[in-house]
Amino acid sequence: MKNNCTLFLLLNIYSCFFFGIQAQELSLSLKAEKEIPEGVVDSLQLPASYKDFISLKNETDTLHLKLQRMGFIESELLQLKKENDSSYTAAFFLGRKYNNIKVYYSEKDFSKKELQHVASQIDSSYFILPFETIPTALRKLTAYRNAKGNAFARVRLTAFNNTGAGNLSATLLIENGKLRTVDSIVLKGYEKFPKSYLKYYAGVRKGKLFDQKKLLAQNENLNSLGFVSSIKPPEALFREDSTTVYFYLEKEENNLFDGILGFATDEESQKLTFNGYLNLELNNNLNYGEQLLINYKSDGEKQINFKTKLTLPYLFSSPFGLSGELMIFKRDSTFITTEQQLRSTYQLDTRSTLYVGYKGYESSNLLDEVIAGIPIEDFTSRFFIFGGNYKKPQNRKLFPVKTAIYLDMGIGSRKQKSESEDQIGFTSVISNIFNLNYRNSLFVQNSTSALFSDSYLINELFRFGGINSIRGFDENSIDASLFSVLNTEYRYQFNDGVYLHSIIDVGYFENQTISLKEKIYSFGLGLGLNTKAGIFRFNIANGNRQNTPFNLTNTKVHISISSKF
């Protein structure tokens, strides 16, 4: 028993001694042959303490490199001295501090435009760098060489020379590796991914110069498609005579459904009527990148809006594609209009698409008798259309598109009875997100449409209003021969799944059939949630017209949810 107690006591003494030493922290101070400027000490960012001697010694060894990068290239560690049990002093010889370095280069290696990103003073044969910026400048210049296909190129300084007055000169040396091009492309995870999207949408092609930075940007382009996601960044396998690029992709379910449908019996006709809305979007179900849209909206009384669209991209693995669209709009018992579109598209580059096509309208007057002051007549219109769109994606799940531009122009004529009249139509939608930081952003969008004609009919005018144009107004409740709407949202993003935003919309429209010119505006708040069921959007906005007092009854609630399956 006595031996056990003695052993227990010895173990406790040893533990206290051992852990006491481990817990002791060490400090380090610096000295040199001259007083070290306070700014230099601050730049070294010395820790206040060290947990053991090994970490203190490692820090001391790196100080030499830090001092050299700051311009003390003659610096040298003279001694590391122990002052007492918890403090050490590192004695350095600093020498002269060099402020700038003049770097001689060849114009065939780098252009002045490239050098402007690393230096402010540039001559035809040299440029000047502050000493502290040398590592960053060399990394940027190396990246430029890599982007030109020299995946293994290295840029460094050689032939140093002291030019006096605290300055140095050196020569820029380029060590060019073998020029690399993309010889083969391998898809991992989603082997049936439509390869035309790699070539035309993302811009990944065989024979192109290898550029790792560009590959990462192209990978982000693929992420913005919606029906595919990247598992990890692309990788490259370099063999002696070839370069293989690997993309790691995963198929995403990107079919969207949003809708509420109801039905009732019309009191007058005793016919079954439908109301509500349905939005169905089928994407890439055949692994071709195709898209089918079906959209139906009805309030049961005033209007019915039906739209279907089929898009077939990259026909026969070419940059050309086709799309067809059918739209039917019926306003109570006033008129019904059918619109057909056929477009041939061409992928100009990874972000831009051009198209030409045909658009036709057929409209019928449903009124039993002509009403004075309401120009509604049967007509047909034929237009040759052309335009294009531009999209710049961003790596944000809730807001995948940073910039979008859509332009459409139509030239044609309208025929009614035995008369024909030339017309020109124009539509543009331009939007951009200004990212202030991760949580705060500003969304701005302008939508403008105009019909130029000598005379106008109500059933050929543009219709706008609602959640997709100016909020705070009923859907498609405003007729216009010309309108322009500015939508703005200040967004605050709590996390990747929740954001709150303001609503401030301003619009102007003209209706030539009744000689009306009016300004409208709305304001409110909105909420967005990325739920398991899909993206839920709730907007509440109050719409008002020019010279009309504020009325709370004009407040509209817009709710939408897009479910993926």
From TrEMBL:
Residues 181-246 form the POTRA domain. InterPro entries: BamA/TamA_POTRA. GO terms for cellular component: outer membrane. Gene3D superfamilies: membrane protein fhac: a member of the omp85/tpsb transporter family. This is POTRA domain-containing protein. It comes from Aequorivita flava.
